[in-house]
Amino acid sequence: MTTDYMTQNQEISTKQSSPSAKTSQSKLLLSALYLIAAGLLLGSIPFPYWGLILEAPQYPDGLEMRVFVNEMTGDEDPTLDEVSEIDGLNHYIGMQSLYNAAKIERAIALPAVIIMAILLAVAAFWRKRYAWLLALPAFTFPFVFLTDLGLWMRHYGQNLDPYAPLSSAIAPFTPPVLGEGVIGQFKTVSYVNTGWYMVLGTSVVIAIAWVLQWWVSRQNQGS
Amino acid sequence: MKLNRNTVFLGVTIVFAFLMGAIVFSPWASLEAQSGGGDWQTVMTERGFTDEDVYAALSTYNPSGVYDEFVMFASGGHSGQVFAIGLPSMNVLRTIAVFTPEPWQGYGFGAGEEVLDGGNMDGQEVRWGDTHHPALSETGGQYDGQYLFINDKANGRVAVIDLRDFETKQIINNPLYVNDHALFATPSTDYVIQGGQYAQPIGGDYAPMADYAESFVGIVTMWKFDREAGRIDADNSFALELPPYWQDLCDAGKQVSEGWIFCNTFNTELALGGIESGNPPFEAGASRNTTDYMHIINYRAAEELFLAGEYEVVNGMAVITLETLVENNVIFNTPEPRSPHGVDVAPYGDFIVVSGKLDPHTSIYSFDKMMAAIEAGPTELDPFGIPILAFEDVIEAQVEVGLGPLHTQFDDQGYAYTSLFLDSAVARWSLGGDNYRPQDGWSLIETIPVQYNVGHIAVAEGDTVSPAGNYLVSLNKWSVDRFLNTGPLLPQNLQLIDIGADRDNMQMLYDMPLGMGEPHYAQIMRADRLNTWEVYPEVGWDPATQSVDERAVAPGEEGITRDGNTVYVNQTAIRSHFTPEIVNINEGEHVVWTITNIERAKDATHGFAIPYYGINLSIEPGESITFEFDADKGGVFTWYCTEFCSALHLEMMGYLLVQP
């Protein structure tokens, strides 16, 4: 199907010199969709993508960690750095400091998001056969993000310092990326947050754009 | 199939019965039955409680996690401490170490010595105090929740407590005098005023009792408070020389009387005691006259004299002589019923209430009348030349309240409350002035017995310009039979009395035994005025300066360095280890040891104790402490965290190896 659509797309851009009013509207819509996708992607930067709440009896308010596209923070409470606090607790089981995780990803995240948004903007106006490919990185981004997060969590959970105080009590484990987990007296609840839903929205909008693009090419073929 | 009527009826009945059963046996229904945590009425019957008892219990009980509405700061008497007590629960929230070293707070065992040394008297270490009168800092005549001042009656010293961390920041020794009684703040807390008590030669001089009238003096000290620095500024403070009467309580004027202070005196007889020589004992000699004098002092005028340099210097302290005070119309006397204790200014500042403990009346003086009498020009003088305002010219009213009236507080409804020592009771009476209850006039409303021998009383914000009312605490000296016997030294009994809920009757709510000292006076403040830190604002905090200490140790910068004979140990503490853990030094070296608690979690306090060397610290989250000692004894010393901090708290230890 994709191949067909590509071929047709080329036909649209090369052969159709005077498209019907309907396809002209559709192209406008197509541009708008790519721009919306780019907007959602850029708009997600100030919002947390993912979060984890650690619950234990001695932390009545819980310890909340928020992961943004390029940084990790605690909640709004200014007196306590929850990430350091979680690090402090993790040292008992020999887990590395969270601040050492995904350093490269965090470093390149902002430029990468901006580049993906630019690619979407180009795709909005550049009607070449392979223009749709420009949206592919943005389309996969939410899934790449969660996969990378999951790999890091597995790496952290599986590589515990054997000389840690509780190394004999806690076997290596893989904390869940989503949902509940239990480690020692702690219950963890992981969830995706606003930022991630926004980039998921980017993917959905891109998917719609692709379908629309395919449909337009079918229309043009028919006319 | 067609259903007949009976089948339908049976079906409906079965469904109905099932639903009822489901409701009765459902988890929801059983939760409902259990949510009361047992049947309270059975408890009431079994323990023989009356409705009043249950009312009292329900009025004071705080379920877990529910906070008190008020906090009471009670002096700790000769424990040398201050107690913070929640109201209405009457739970001791914590003690604040002031004049006495206290191990839990790590005060005086490697930290806090600089504060304690501020109270040294001529180089002599004095490591206890008799705390008497807590005085909360005020803004506009109302508590502002920032500072608490407390005096040491025995040694005439004053301390400053910062309510951001509930720690003593300063102890200041009065170079003029070795005893005091009153301590109170002016409505803006530009001055904290220390009233004297027993007359003595000024500045620690010697004089024989035969020279009493000439050589002994009374003193009121005006300590300038620097709110920015959070410290008393001794250089800008001054004292007033008074006659060798025994000054007792004082209070600052407020609103219309702001700028004036009022001080009771007793022993205007100038009794010399000497029971061993056949003289009347002080208790008789100092109570012979039917009246003593209240000093009425214009402290703004005194301040002008100080700023104009009209003073003498004694032991480095500015003293305005009595002669100068009299010449400049700063001080006046008026007779008051003999042997008074309380002198309390009403919320609008318009009346001053005095209770002579050997007279069944409280006497209410009018500030306006005092001013008029001063204007008219008094004709009589006391033996020291102080003009006397005639009693009948300044008195507004007298109310017969009962036997042994001592001390008065006010509520928000125009009532005053006076403790009755001899009656073991508290009297509620109405202030007849226009600002209060003119409809009731100056009259006794009711009394409530207390158990036993009440000294001071405290009403919620009851000595401010806007009392809260609600509660009254009776600070009873004797508990006699109120509590389980724990030996011949009995606890105090602090009784909580409801004065707000039912305006027609005061009701006793709670008896609180306090077996940690003898609270003398207390102030009760709305808890929401406090702005107290949960952890220190930044890691590396020095509570002495309330700023980050440059000696604080950051993670990764720990280590041991040497400079000549001095060893610097730079250490961090976090659950559950100190870094470094092994410290090797040589006998004879001087050790400067810094520990920074790098925790940010609430309640993650670490202790630190080294045996033999007498080190015991409490290092609260973010706090950095530096202590020093001479390693004069070789050996292996184990230090450990003294505050149970975590599951591996026991492992939070280390070795100090002092090589001989």
User: What is the total domain count of chain A?
Assistant: 1
CATH architecture of the domain at 174-353 and 377-400 in chain B: 7 Propeller
Integer-rounded radius of gyration of chain B: 30 Å
Helix content of chain B: 10-25%
Radius of gyration of chain A: 23 Å
The strand order across the widest sheet of chain A is: 3-2-1-5-4
Described by strand count, sense and barrel closure, the largest sheet of chain A is: 5 strands, antiparallel
How would you name the CATH homologous superfamily of the domain at 174-353 and 377-400 in chain B? YVTN repeat-like/Quinoprotein amine dehydrogenase
Terminal residue distance of chain B: 107 Å
Contiguous uncertain segments of 5+ residues of chain B: 16-35
Task: Give the CATH level 1 class of the domain at 174-353 and 377-400 in chain B.
Answer: Mainly Beta
Largest interchain contact? A-B, 9 and 13 residues
Average per-residue pLDDT of chain B, rounded, comes to 93
Quaternary status: heterodimer
String of helices and strands of chain A: HHEEEHHHEEH
Cα shape of chain A:
elongated
**What's the helix count of chain B?**
11
Which regions of chain A contain 5 or more consecutive residues with pLDDT less than 50?
1-17
The strand order across the widest sheet of chain B is 8-9-10-11-16-15
Distance between the termini of chain A: 19 Å
